[in-house]
Design goal:
Elements (H helix, E strand, L loop, with lengths): L3 H7 L5 E6 L5 E7 L2 H7 L9 H8 L3 E6 L3 H15 L6 E3 L6 E4 L8 E4 L8 E3 L5 H15 L19 H4 L13 H15 L4 H16 L3 H19 L11 E8 L4 E9 L2 E11 L6 H15 L6 E4 L6 H12 L4 E3 L4 H31 L1 H11 L6 E10 L2 E11 L2 E2 L5 E4 L8 H26 L14 E4 L3 H13 L6 E6 L5 E6 L2 E4 L5 H34 L7 H11 L2 H6 L2 H5 L6 H17 L1
Parallel strand pairs: 8-11, 11-12, 13-17, 17-18
Antiparallel strand pairs: 1-2, 1-3, 4-10, 5-6, 5-7, 8-9, 9-10, 13-14, 14-15, 14-16, 18-19, 19-20
Helix pairs in contact: 4-11, 5-9, 8-9, 12-13, 13-16, 14-15
Length: about 625
């Protein structure tokens, strides 16, 4: 038994990190302190006004532990690491798993390349970014390779010069082929320097050169080259025009502001690099109930800048936060040069912070509306269906459909919706084994029997092994079964469930003469449903999805059967040779028309097999 009074007495008056555990020994909160003795004891005093969230957390503490550090800075780093490792329930968390793209110039190589990178390493390369759009980075790299014709291959140069033929990029004039010695190292590196100049925002020389080349090509009647220069000129101009917001300081800085309500918070970050606004991004913070803006902003700075590889020289904040000196020291250590945290009070910088705050408020309000609409389409629609059928609760719904053509390749589909959203990982396909011919009722009985017997067997297996659940299994049974049809399909489902002693509500999705859903069949009664309601729209989506999934499976089987029905009947032609023939000729008709010599042109087809194929189709033609 953990003795709180005794353990509180032992707390040292030193900096460090404390971890709060609940009764299950799960870490529910991690914090840092300048003085562990004072900070941890404060949680267990009767203090009014510290917030319901903290009070709720304190009630769940079964024990605590602490780690002493040499300084508050060390405590800050350790706190960050532990929060990332354990994701405690009551810590304000940055909800973000994004990595931002960089443009990487491998200046450490003899023949440098311009590459796309998701991380910034200490590898003698030059990095530009981070950028918020991967597509924009790729477009820029593509443009630069067209402009400067630098290599993109991974060959080791100059070691591999002349060993292999030049690649396609050389032939389409997008590489100067240093791998063949077509350009000297000095000339190549001069192009790299021009590329670096371009990445630093100096577009004028490029525009001027392209304009001159375009005019010269026009005068020489070389219109193809003129068009190429014109397209490159327009691409460069487009990149240049995107950098409209500039700052006279020409420095790297991030501008941070947030918006919050009772349950959510959004932090907006503007990324300014070399005085230019290159992008913006918003981030969600979770577990913010009871936290003020300054605390959320502080938690964001600690968590975001512990993970991002690039730290700007200055962070411009919406308001004052705690531990600024410690944070500056920590960030400066990570960057390798001085970092400043400032709260601008007037002028252009203050207006930029307010602009970031406006963006954060806009994101928060728009997402609230979007979430509200989405909940109406999903959870709200499920509640409508539950109310219509007088069921207490519905979460998981499963729908089934049968597909065949005149009884050929009977298949069944099972689609799953949870809380009104499709759960694709739980979809299942069934190839009917016991039914030949067009008997949808018998097919449905087989599908449902296999589904629930499989689920019951899996549950028994899990019970024996004392495992709670198995992901992607049949063990989770639905709260409602939806059948693609009326009374007949519903009765088949009820019969299967009765035989297996399962109690699951079954509802039929009834269609009109135009094959459109008109109502639900439940407990021997057809229930009309408002066609304008979200519940009706969800039923229609589920029905369409079950139908689509079954048809797609049936179509894939038909396609395979069509290939097998012809080629697999030829002695000596198995899956490998069938695949080689189809890849070489493209269709059955082309194979049918091919001569023995042409068939022997396929590597996998020896002459005696080619003759058998030719003879087979010749016999078919005679009998046809």
């Amino acid at each position: 038994m953990f003795d709180f009074d005794e353990e509180l007495k032992k707390l040292p008056a030193s900096p460090g990190v404390y971890l709060m555990h609940d009764a299950a020994d799960t870490i529910i909160y991690v914090g840092k302190a300048v003085n562990l003795h004072n900070r941890v004891r404060s949680y267990f005093r009767k203090i009014v006004g510290r917030g319901p969230q903290i009070d709720k957390m304190v009630q769940q503490i079964a024990r605590f532990e602490y780690i002493v550090t040499d300084s508050e800075l060390e405590a800050l780093v350790l706190e960050n690491n532990l929060i990332k490792e354990y994701s405690p329930k009551y810590n304000t968390m940055l909800k973000d798993d994004k990595t931002y793209p960089y443009i990487k110039v491998t200046v450490g190589e003899d023949y440098p390349r311009i590459l796309f990178s998701r991380e910034m390493k200490k590898d003698r390369s030059k990095y530009f970014g981070p950028y918020t759009s991967a597509a924009a980075v790729k477009d820029t790299i593509d443009l630069m390779n067209k402009l400067y014709q630098l290599r993109t291959c991974s060959r080791k140069l100059p070691r591999d010069i002349g060993l292999e033929r030049p690649c396609l990029n050389y032939h389409i004039h997008q590489c100067m082929a240093p791998c063949q010695g077509c350009i000297t190292k000095e000339e190549y590196c001069a192009r790299v320097e021009q590329a670096l100049d371009f990445l630093n925002g100096n577009y004028r020389p490029v525009l001027k050169t392209l304009e001159e080349k375009m005019m010269q090509a026009s005068e020489n009647m070389d219109f193809e080259e003129a068009i190429r220069c014109r397209d490159l000129y327009n691409s460069v101009k487009s990149v240049a025009q995107k950098q409209k917001i500039t700052d006279s300081g020409g420095e790297d800085k991030d501008i941070l502001a947030l918006a919050k309500d009772e349950t959510d918070a959004v932090v907006q970050v503007f990324f300014v690099r070399d005085g230019k606004l290159i992008g913006r991004e918003h981030f969600y913070m979770t577990h913010v109930q009871g936290c003020d803006s300054a605390q959320i902003l502080l938690d964001f700075v600690k968590q975001f800048y512990s993970g991002t590889p690039f730290i700007p020289r200055e962070l411009m904040l919406q308001e004052e936060i705690a531990d600024i000196e410690v944070l500056e020291k920590w960030l400066s250590g990570r960057k390798g040069s001085r970092v400043y945290l400032r709260v601008p009070k007037k002028g252009t910088k203050e207006k930029l912070v307010e602009l970031a705050a406006q963006n954060a408020r806009l994101v928060l309000s728009q997402d609230k509306e979007r979430i509200k609409r989405e909940e109406g389409r999903t959870i709200g629609a499920v509640k409508e269906i539950a109310a219509l059928l007088e069921l207490d609760h519905i979460s998981r719904m499963e729908a089934y459909d049968i597909s065949n053509i005149s009884g050929f390749a009977n298949v069944g589909s099972m689609v799953v919706f949870e809380k009104g959203k499709a759960k694709h990982s739980d979809y299942r396909k069934f190839r009917i084994q016991s039914v030949s011919g067009p008997d949808d009722y018998a097919c449905m009985k087989e599908v449902l029997t296999r589904r629930f017997v499989h689920g019951m067997e899996e549950k028994e297996e899990l019970d024996r092994k004392e495992i709670d659940h198995a992901l992607g299994s049949f063990t989770k049974f639905p709260d409602l079964l939806l059948m693609d049809g009326g009374k007949g399909q519903v009765n088949i489902a009820l019969q299967v469930l009765e035989e297996l002693h399962l109690d699951i509500p079954v509802c039929g999705m009834v269609k009109d003469d135009n094959h459109r859903t008109r109502g639900l069949y439940y407990r021997n009664v057809e229930i009309p449903i408002d066609t304008r309601s979200e519940g009706f729209k969800l039923i229609t989506r589920i029905q369409d999805e079950a139908h689509r999934f079954a048809i797609e499976y049936h179509r894939s089987l038909r396609s395979k059967a069509q290939v097998r029905s012809v080629l697999d009947e030829i002695p000596g032609v198995g899956p490998a040779r069938r695949k080689a023939l189809m890849k070489h000729f493209g269709s059955i008709n082309e194979i049918r028309e091919a001569s023995v010599e042409e068939l022997c042109g396929v590597k996998e087809i020896p002459e005696h097999i080619a003759k058998q194929i030719r003879e087979y189709f010749a016999e078919q033609d005679k009998s046809g």
